[in-house]
């Protein structure tokens, strides 16, 4: 069997979409997090890191499996969007300012929408 099986690919796309939706919901829910809520920041940071890990693994599998079948330009666009997403997620975890984190979330939400659009031809 060549590359990733169809079920594996669908599973990756499903998990990516689920993580994207969870991250978008987190952006709305975490607006109430107080700047001095150290435990809340730790939970949010851990949750972001966990979701980013799942996203990284699934995106890596999806891009690697697409290989020669997909147009290199599409794969590069997906990789670029993923890299941008991980940079914004990292910034969101490092910042302890709610205003800065919300700004980062706005950028992340835009990149997540780009990611969803880039996934459409791959599912």
Automatic annotation (TrEMBL):
> Where does this polypeptide localize?
Plastid, Chloroplast thylakoid membrane
Any one GO molecular-function label of the UniProt entry: calcium ion binding
Q: Which family does it belong to?
A: Belongs to the PsbQ family.
Q: Which GO terms describe its biological process?
A: photosynthetic electron transport chain
Instruction: Give a Gene Ontology cellular component term annotated to this protein.
Output: extrinsic component of membrane
Q: Which InterPro entries match?
A: PsbQ-like_dom_sf, PSII_PsbQ, PSII_PsbQ_pln
Which protein are we looking at? Uncharacterized protein
Q: Mind listing the UniProt keywords for this protein, alphabetically?
A: Chloroplast, Membrane, Plastid, Thylakoid, Transit peptide
**Which one Pfam family would you cite for this protein?**
PsbQ
The domain of life for this entry's organism is: Eukaryota
Quote the SUPFAM superfamilies the UniProt record gives. Answer: Oxygen-evolving enhancer protein 3 (SSF101112)
Q: Which organism is it from?
A: Zingiber officinale (Ginger)
């Amino acid at each position: 069997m060549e590359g990733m099986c169809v079920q594996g690919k669908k599973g990756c796309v499903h998990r990516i979409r689920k993580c994207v939706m969870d991250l978008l919901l987190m952006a709305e829910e975490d607006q109430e997090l107080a700047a001095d809520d150290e435990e809340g920041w730790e939970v949010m940071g851990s949750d972001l890191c966990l979701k980013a890990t799942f996203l990284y693994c699934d995106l890596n599998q999806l891009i690697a499996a697409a290989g020669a079948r997909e147009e290199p330009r599409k794969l590069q666009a997906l990789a670029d969007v993923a890299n941008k997403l991980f940079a914004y997620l990292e910034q969101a975890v490092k910042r302890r300012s709610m205003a800065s984190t919300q700004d980062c979330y706005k950028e992340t939400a835009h990149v997540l929408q780009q990611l969803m659009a880039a996934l459409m031809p791959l599912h």
